[in-house]
Design goal:
- This protein is α+β, with helices and mostly antiparallel strands.
- The chain folds into 2 domains: 55-168, Endonuclease Iii, domain 2 (Orthogonal Bundle), CATH 1.10.1670; 184-291, Nucleoside Triphosphate Pyrophosphohydrolase.
- It contains 11 helices and 6 strands.
- Strands 1, 2, 3, 4, 5 and 6 form a 6-stranded mixed sheet that branches.
- A hairpin with a 3-residue loop joins strand 4 and strand 5.
- Helix 3 crosses helix 4, helix 6 (69-80) packs across helix 9 and helix 7 (89-99) packs across helix 9 (132-145).
- Keywords: 4Fe-4S, DNA damage, DNA repair, Glycosidase, Hydrolase, Iron, Iron-sulfur, Metal-binding.
- Belongs to the Nth/MutY family.
- It catalyses: Hydrolyzes free adenine bases from 7,8-dihydro-8-oxoguanine:adenine mismatched double-stranded DNA, leaving an apurinic site.
- Pfam families: HHH, HhH-GPD, NUDIX_4.
């Protein structure tokens, strides 16, 4: 909530967000994770300003950067009363249990099946098509508070007499989801290089974690250099968990009188200015550990 308040106070209108730099947006977002969402919000704001208005159909809303089927349906139904179901995890869970559907929710067949069923319920239900926002809100809230992952409140559920999963004793088995993502472990080493009140940093590039964020000198799957200066181990085997990755990091402090050779994308800044740059949470941890050295 504090992040939300700060974000809205800084960018009260879409024009304010569009006018900001990516660095400013990422710095304000720092600590929340999922930085692609901040970048997408920023790009979408610029799209909206260029259009001159907020898009008001599901198809046009989906053209905004970072907006997929679910988000487009949610916005279209809540903001513009379009009769489109917002099929999220809660919706999958309710429908799979009530109707006893074991088709994997993340399979191509499953996505089509649940979308079609939700559309049928919305359009055929009494008054649902006229109040799509209420239908979507009810489905979301019911899955979040009643038909929860574990343990669902089946005894007092208004659907317990028609719920196929309850009748078959399969509540804990549904919904079914294919395991498609394997968690990978990455090992990196950070060198916080301090030279006459300055520190070397660079911005992470596209196509990897923490795109656009800043960090000290980093090595991954590389031979570590032998630099002149005082080298201090700040911390080792620091575990940092992301959605699909586990990062194991070692932190070093190098205090040197001579600047070591670094790739061209590194810059030297006054150490006191580092706090104005947007950094990943792991770098925040490094800085916190440095204060104890």
């Amino acid at each position: 909530m504090d992040y939300w308040k700060r974000f809205m106070a800084t960018y009260p209108t879409v024009d304010d967000l569009a006018a900001a730099s990516e660095d400013e947006v990422l710095k304000l977002w720092q600590g929340l994770g999922y930085y692609s969402r901040a970048r997408n919000l920023h790009k979408a704001a610029r799209q909206i300003v260029a259009m001159g208005k907020f898009p008001d159909t599901p198809a046009d809303i989906k053209k905004l950067k970072g907006v997929g089927d679910y988000t487009a349906a949610a916005i279209a139904s809540f903001a513009f009363s379009f009769p489109v179901p917002a099929v999220d995890g809660n919706c999958h869970r309710v429908l799979s249990r009530v109707y006893g559907i074991d088709t994997p929710i993340n399979s191509t067949q499953g996505k089509k099946l649940f979308q079609a069923l939700a559309e049928q319920l919305m359009t055929e239900g009494r008054g649902n098509a006229d109040r799509p926002e209420d239908f979507n809100a009810a489905m979301m809230d019911f899955g979040a508070t009643q038909c929860t992952p574990k343990p669902p409140a089946c005894i007092v559920c208004p659907f317990n007499e028609q719920c196929e999963a309850l009748r078959q004793g399969r509540v804990d088995e549904l919904p079914v989801k294919l395991k498609t993502t394997r968690v990978k472990t990455r090992r990196i080493v950070y060198f916080y290089i301090r030279h006459q009140g300055q520190v070397a940093i660079h911005r992470r590039g596209e196509g990897d974690i923490w795109q656009g964020l800043w960090e000290p000198v980093v090595f991954e799957n590389q031979k570590l250099p032998a630099w002149d200066g005082k080298l201090t181990m700040v911390a080792n085997q620091v575990k940092h968990v992301l959605t699909h990755r586990v990062i194991m990091a070692d932190f070093y402090l190098l205090e040197t009188d001579t600047k070591p050779p670094l790739p061209k994308d590194y810059i030297w800044i006054d150490e006191g200015e580092f706090e104005t740059y947007a950094v990943p949470r792991l770098v925040e941890i490094l800085i916190e550990r440095l204060s104890r050295v």
